[in-house]
């Protein structure tokens, strides 16, 4: 963190990479900007993203996925760099 700023971390659905056995997260940084020691970072738990695993299909969008994605966008809206990040692009 000597040369970059951590804006936030999003914990993703453990089934994002179904069958792999990993815990995916998205870390959003601002490059080449010193991380101030008083900086408040956002940590967002997005494990319940509205996607479900279906047999022989994999991860599919559930009925609540769009609303939950919109809620995620609103959580990140206070951090402009998070909002502009590709991680915040709804499908």
TrEMBL record:
Stored SUPFAM superfamilies: S-adenosyl-L-methionine-dependent methyltransferases
Protein's name according to its UniProt entry: Uncharacterized protein
Organism lineage string: Bacteria, Bacillati, Actinomycetota, Actinomycetes, Bifidobacteriales
